[in-house]
Amino acid sequence: NIYLHIGDEEVVNHSISNISTISFIFFKLQQIIKKKAKIYETLKELKELFLTSKEDQARFNIPNYKIQLFKLIKFYGIYYSFAVGSLVIYSIIHFILNGPKELPIVIWLPLNYGTNLRYFVAVLWVSLCSVNGVVARCAVDWFLFAILTNVSMEFDILRMKMQEVYVNAEGARNFIIHHNKLIGICNKMEEIFSTMLFFCFIQSSFLISMAAFSLATTESIVDGAILAARLSLSLIQSYLPFRYGQKLIDSSSEIAAA
User: I want to staple 100 with a disulfide (CB 3.0 to 4.6 A). Which of 119, 154, 217, 240 is the partner?
Assistant: First the structure.
C-alpha cells in the first residue's frame, strides 16, 4: 500500500511546490478576469495605433517582431510541456512495467491508490491537472509577452518615423500625442500586471530556493530530474518578463535619441 507521509522531506518539498504553482496559476487567471475591462481598453488603444497598411508593415519590419515573439513563446511552451509531460509519461511507463508506485507529481488523494485501478485513475487525474495547468500558465504568460512586444514595437515605429521625416510644428504635435498614448498604455499595463509580476517574482524565488537546495541533497535520479525541471522552469519564468520589460524600456528610451 502507498501513502503520503507528511514527515517525508521530498514529499513535503514536492507538495509545497505543486500547491504554490497551482495557487499562482489560479491567482493569475483571477487577476486577468478581474481586470478584463481595463485589458480590453488597453488592447483597443493598441489596435488604434497599429499600422494596417502592408506597405507600412514592411517598411517598419513589423513581421520580424511577430517572428521573434513566436520563437520565444514556442520554446517556452514546448519546454514547459516537455518538462511536465515527461513526468506523467514516466509514471505511466513505470506503472505498465512495475505496477503502482508514488506519483512523480505528488498530489493528495482521499484514498490509497496502491491498487492498479486506483493508481491508473490517479495518473489520469495528474495528467488532466498538468495539461490544464500548462495551458493556463502559458496562456497568461504569452498574453503578457504579446502586449509588451506590441508596445515596444510601437515605440520603435514612432522613433523611426521621427528619424525619417522633417518635423514641423504639426508633425511634432502628432508625435507628442502618439507618444503620450503609448505612455498611457504603459501606465495601464503597470496597473494590470504589477501585482501579478510581483507575486510571480516571489513565487519563482521561493521555488528556485527550494529546488536548488533539494537538488543538491537528493540521491534519487528521478527526484533529481523533477527538481532540475522545476528549477529550470522557475528560472525561465523569472527571466522572460524581465527580458520583455527591458526591451520595452530600451525602446522607450530610444525616443529621446530620435
Answer: 119
Report the Cα 217 to chain-centroid distance in Å: 28
Over range 83-87, report the average pLDDT.
74
Task: Determine the Cα–Cα distance for residues 102 and 90; give it in Å rounded to an integer.
Answer: 12
> Distance (Å, rounded) from C-alpha 7 to C-alpha 18?
17
Apex CA 60: angle with CA 55 and CA 64, to 5°? 105
Residue with cell 503597470: 190
Total number of residues shown for the chain = 258
Grid cell 522613433 in the structure block, residue: 159
What's the CA gap between 4 and 137, in Å, rounded?
A: 27
Three-class DSSP labels, 19-41? HHHHHHHHHHHHHHHHCHHHHHH
The span from the CA of 243 to the CA of 258, in Å, is 23
Cell 509577452 maps to which residue? Answer: 145
What is the SS3 assignment for 5? coil
Does the pTM surpass 0.85? The reply is no
Query: Residue 251 burial (CB < 10 Å; 0-12/13-18/19+)?
Result: buried
Residue type present at position 120: F
Q: Kindly calculate the radius of gyration of the chain based on its CA atoms and give it in whole angstroms.
A: 23
Q: What angle do CA 196, 199, 205 make, to 5 degrees?
A: 135
Banded pLDDT at 20 (limits 50, 70, 90) = confident
Cell of 27: 491567482
| Helix segments in the chain, DSSP class H | 9-34, 36-49, 54-59, 62-98, 116-164, 169-217, 221-257
pLDDT, tens only, 153-175: 888 888 887 776 655 656 677 77
Distance (Å, whole) CA 64 – CA 58 = 9
